[in-house]
Amino acid sequence: MSLKLFRSTGFHSIxxxxxxxxxxxxxxxxxxxxxxxxxxxxxxxxxxxxxxGSLLPAIAASIGIAGAVGFFLSVFGWRRTxxxxxxxxxxxxxxLSGGVWxxxxxxxxxxxxxxxxxxxxxxxxxxxxxxxPILLVLLGGLPVLWLWNTQLRRLSxxxxxxxxxxxxxxxxxxxxxxxxxxxxxxxx
Length: 188
What we know:
The structure is a single chain. By secondary structure, the chain is mainly α. It has one domain (23-187). The chain contains 8 helices and no strands.
């Protein structure tokens, strides 16, 4: 008869070394969502690429929007709050993208004090056309499905706090650069 020092219960934790290495780091998840919102959900960038607008303000808006979303997600980058906050950011940016696309609003309206967020939303009538629902599904729904099916690496409390604080400072800097550039282009 042999002596067993450890008993196996058949239960495997998410914190096993192999699974922890395969899971996505929360910082990379923030970068992926911020990049998606800044590039794919930026209607101004796509309008500029097809020749309907200026490219430099669209790029500045991409940098500023990605930085703002990254900052927001770094603040809410904790284990229980990240996915709901990222869902809100993805669906909200898809809705705003539909409004910008259907109303052809210039990117400099982001730094205009007179512009309200409600002016960027799509009109109610456009919600029943084909463009806005398709944009909501492609730009918001599919990334939300990816997000909720992606395992994120569980970090210890101090490591998660360091990651969040580093992300807050980095993304604040990125947003400041993007919106400062957009403000200079709007003033010129």
